[in-house]
Give the backbone structure.
Amino acid sequence: MRQQTKQLAAQQEINKEQLENLRLERKALQAEVRDRHTAQARKVKFTFEIVPGEDFPDGPNSCWYSAHVTNDSDEAIRNLTVDYQGLEEVQAARLKPDTQLMEQPCTAGPGHEVVFSSQTTFIDHLYNIFPKCHFTDAAGVDWVLDQDGHLVEDAPPTSSGQSSE
């Protein structure tokens, strides 16, 4: 009976170690899945600048945003748009380097850069707008990339009609 008690205690210790190993392996696999999930999206770069217009700095058409989205991944991104928070839809999207005008939302292939231009407005108005880039990766996941490089998965709209703000 003592021998069986010792064997049982030893087996429980082995089971405990195996359970801890399984937990660590699961955690590592979850991290790997998370990394794979965001791998393509993390290779998309978003920058923007204020471009002076003809009646800069005080006119109603004094400037606009020029936003650059670069796809450094190995696959295309789709549904690419830039949200200028309250400004009307962007005026133009051009594929660089050949400056081909594109329909919106657009697709950016591997290694391509797309330049978006906002409508013109007062410079003071632009200082209160924080553009965001929206796109869908090759796996069909929707993403939002902000001016600070923060990447978040874009949540689908709620069916209740309530805003998440």
